[in-house]
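Re: Re: token formats

Sure, here are both.
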Amino acid sequence: MPEKEDVSAIDRPLWPAVRQGLLNQCPACGAAPLFQRFLRTGSRCAGCGQSWEHHQADDFPAYIVILLLGHILVPLMIEVNFAFAIPMPVQAVLWPGIALVLAIAMIQPVKGAVIAFQWSRRMNGFAIPKD
């Protein structure tokens, strides 16, 4: 009978896991997608069987996206307004549109990175199982 693998000995390096999460891949194996739908994780990884039901990303990915958008858009708006004379009605459509597109593009990779961070640090339901 094969020996049961000691899960406490399995190393979970942070940066490779976060990179996998950013790329919508399972942080544990990298072989299967992390998300079943746009922001919904599957219950288990199809490649390695890792359970994703215990993650608690909650609102943290949205906070990160808002922080990043502010740091991207505010300097961009200042530079564009300094360099060009764009009419205010155009800007009233332009900047919210850019913010919306960037937010939609960033939310899934950021949520994947947060879940991968939780997994690599053994937070919440990703802790070592007790027999």
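Second one below.
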Amino acid sequence: MWAHERGLCLAVAKSGSAFWALRYSTAAGRRRLMTLQQYQPIDAAGLKALEWQAAELRKVIKAGRDPLAERDADTAATATAATTVSRIAVDTFEEVARDYIAQHKDGWKNAKHLQQWENTLETYAYPIIGKLLPHEITTDDVLKVLRQDHERAGKNGTLWTGARETI
């Protein structure tokens, strides 16, 4: 570890990765090492910016607060909020697909297109990926849908090779 000024240092982890950090003690006497940024060669202006950041953090420490604990709490709160929002705001693939059909059916040339969309998704997609959230669907999930057994005109194959294209 290379020490610079009043706790600002270049630290090297056991893994060999280096980072700029601030070493300090809390009001309770607990020693802390707060990562400021991953190591990169910096010029005088970059070092001055790190020194300024360390000086601001020392003000927080002097006020009796622990900036690392505060940052960790902020990160945890942000992650919890993002998880909560994603659980509330995201519909399943089936819900999104049904909504898409409802919004676009008036623009299709005839009622048969509506029936084709609904029947194809109901038969092949919903049983496999219908309950998944759209952002959770992987390439493997799509391949499961396309590689399903499919029979047409007495010929067996997969949905991908045997189904007719619908425009």
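The helical segments are 44-62, 67-89, 93-104, 111-129, 139-146, 159-162. The beta strands are 2-3, 8-12, 18-25, 31-38, 149-152, 155-158.
- S.
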